[in-house]
């Protein structure tokens, strides 16, 4: 696990954590997990302050009601902040003695740039033999023609027998090829059988630290594509990631629709400020203030939002779909670190905050 974590500096018995809000811009020290959790707690506290000050005329303005997509209740508003505070308090006096032990890892955010990185890992998640042809055919071209591709991980979310006991002849041909690649130690491809690793069939398995990618840059495709060209993913995408390795880089943006007038006004203001920054060609090290997050105040205002699955906005996007994205492997560590394992508190959603 040494590629995920770094050992603590034992020269000082009391660890000095980086103050990320006042950190010198020239400092290149990695950002410790506790600093990350503290920043999330501050975000939650700031949101609570903003929500408490919402005027009455902006409260309960929606005429539509929220319809749950599943039988699970919504996560408690601000619950991630409370859970992280509790974990920080309970673990303050008992830091990990070693930082690279599976049961007690220490995570760090990736550096803002990774200009020296030239190799990358490709992750494709799949669960049905019906899609083998869709990703194996283009994968052959990637293996032969994409420079820097030194590792391929197929995250298989079904039992191993779905590959070893295929009844349809055409699918069996591709399953046999995939298994042969996996058994060839000289081949860059390996299969990660999620169920054999104690995981369930989950879309987030592609981000699980048990994958242990050997490269810092991790590239993602869905098993049904779309599979973008080498020019898009390697010549342009990887170069963009090298210059911005502390964020997710991708090609399929999606956004969240604000429904209340308050959130619409705040969203439009933030979008204008973002476009102004792009138009002015602001440098990374400038003192420009980036737009504030639009606070979501479900408890006080009864607001709710909608996921826009109808379009791919280049501006005003809030998330990136996995297919065609590139991510630093350090983010995978946060998906398996100690406080984020408590799924009852809703902390597994914190990963999404870290990746954007």
Strand and helix layout:
Layout: E1 31-32, H1 33-52, H2 79-91, E2 100-101, E3 104-105, E4 108-109, E5 120-126, H3 132-145, E6 149-156, H4 161-164, H5 169-183, E7 189-193, E8 217-222, H6 230-243, E9 253-258, H7 261-279, H8 298-301, E10 305-308, E11 319-320, E12 325-328, H9 330-334, H10 350-355
Parallel strand pairs: 5-6, 5-8, 6-7
Antiparallel strand pairs: 1-4, 2-3, 8-12, 9-10, 9-11
Helix pairs in contact: 1-2
Structural description of this entry:
There is one protein chain. The chain has a five-stranded mixed beta sheet. α3 links the parallel β5 (120-126) and β6. With 356 residues, it is α/β, with parallel strands linked by helices. The chain contains ten helices and twelve strands. It has helices at residues 33-52, 79-91, 132-145, 161-164, 169-183, 230-243, 261-279, 298-301, 330-334, 350-355, and strands at 31-32, 100-101, 104-105, 108-109, 120-126, 149-156, 189-193, 217-222, 253-258, 305-308, 319-320, 325-328.
